[in-house]
Specification:
alpha+beta; 6 helices; 369 residues; six-stranded antiparallel β-sheet; single chain; five-stranded mixed β-sheet
């Protein structure tokens, strides 16, 4: 089995440089339609329906020799007719004037033309490797150079016209590519905004962000989480979608574009169902403690009230006992008891208040009141 070698390099969106042991080629197109050109001048066009296996492929050579053979055949017939009419004339055919881009016998391209195309491709590849933004400008310059080169070297007016049309179409394509790939300004500031900083487990929230300048390219932001086990992020056209995982904790989110960093957002992930159950249990416990405290306070109030009443009753009883045992003065025949032994100048004998009351005596209005 012979050794094979083939390697493809992407030099621009939809454009590839192909290297093999047979030569160098370039291909361009999209999925389902592609045009290829190799160093031998063979052009391959393929059109297909992706996913169906149906496709159409056609292959031809630049400047095919069929037309040249037809021209030679026509020229030979004309020479034969002219020789028949003018026997004395010189009918030796004049060799055609060659140009740098006409195919050599057998339908192959002129070596100089192949070398020129290789140089074209090399220039585009080098420019693309330096910067992707130089791809379309380099293609435009190459196409412009090829246009002047073809107009100066081609002698066949029909070939010159076709080459000019093809090159002009290529130049229009490169100009459109340059317009599409106009460099956009860099992002200067990024600001993240979230509606809630507390999220439930397995919850989704859209984080909005703004940036300056407004015409900058803010796609493909670098989203950094302090703890990747708590949440996942995904950038969409509407903003940044934040998905929390089935784990509680706290994490931060930062968006970056190059060296520019956004503000830092802090999120807390909790199990809201579990937290709600804990809240209800805590409220129930607090209510039970409140009722118990109120009951205890009421019992203490009643006990204090009872103790107060008992103290007042004891005081009253003590006062009553003290009053009953107080010394008063009475006479043998008198109907009054006195606190003063010399009241009205009578002859009194001491006794207790309790006894005086039991004897039916009443207090003296003068000394007792």
């Amino acid at each position: 089995m012979g050794m094979r070698f083939r390697k493809s390099f992407k030099i621009a969106p939809g454009v590839k440089l192909n290297l093999s042991k047979r030569g160098i080629g370039v291909s361009a197109g999209v999925k389902g339609a592609r045009v290829s050109l190799n160093s031998k001048g063979r052009v391959t066009k393929s059109v297909g329906i992706p996913g169906t296996g149906i496709s159409y492929v056609s292959s031809s050579k630049l400047g095919a020799s069929k037309k040249k053979a037809t021209v030679k055949k026509t020229s030979a017939k004309a020479s034969t007719a002219f020789a028949a009419e003018n026997p004395s004339a010189d009918t030796t055919p004049t060799p055609p004037v060659s140009d740098n881009s006409s195919p050599t016998p057998g339908g192959k391209m002129n070596p100089k033309s192949i070398l020129r195309w290789v140089i074209y491709i090399a220039v585009i590849c080098i420019a693309t490797q330096i910067s992707k933004k130089l791809c379309y400008p380099s293609m435009f310059l190459v196409g412009l150079f090829h246009l002047f080169q073809a107009r100066n070297t081609l002698t066949d007016e029909q070939k010159k016209k076709k080459s000019t049309i093809r090159t002009c179409c290529f130049l229009v394509f490169t100009v459109l590519g340059c317009l599409v790939t106009i460099p956009t300004p860099n992002v200067e500031t990024i600001k993240l905004t979230a509606d809630e900083d507390t999220m439930d487990i397995n919850e989704e929230q859209l984080i909005s962000f703004t940036y300056t300048p407004n015409d900058a390219d803010a796609s493909n932001l670098s989203l950094e989480l302090s703890d990747g086990t708590l949440a996942k992020t995904e950038q969409t056209e509407d903003g940044i979608v934040l998905h929390t995982q089935a784990k509680e904790g706290t994490f931060t989110l930062i968006a970056k574009k190059g060296s520019v960093e956004s503000n830092e957002l802090t999120f807390q992930v909790i199990d809201k169902e579990k937290a709600e159950q804990e809240r209800i249990a805590a409220e129930k416990k607090a209510e039970e403690e409140r009722i118990a405290a109120e009951k205890k306070a009421e019992e203490e109030r009643l006990a204090a009230e009872k103790a107060k009443q008992e103290r007042i009753a004891a005081q009253q009883q003590s006062q009553a006992q003290s009053q009953n045992s107080a010394t008063v003065y009475v006479t043998r025949t008198g109907k009054k008891y006195h606190y003063n032994s010399s009241c009205n100048g009578g002859s009194y004998s001491p006794t207790t208040l309790d006894k005086a009351i039991k004897m039916g005596l009443t207090p003296c209005k003068k000394c007792v009141g």
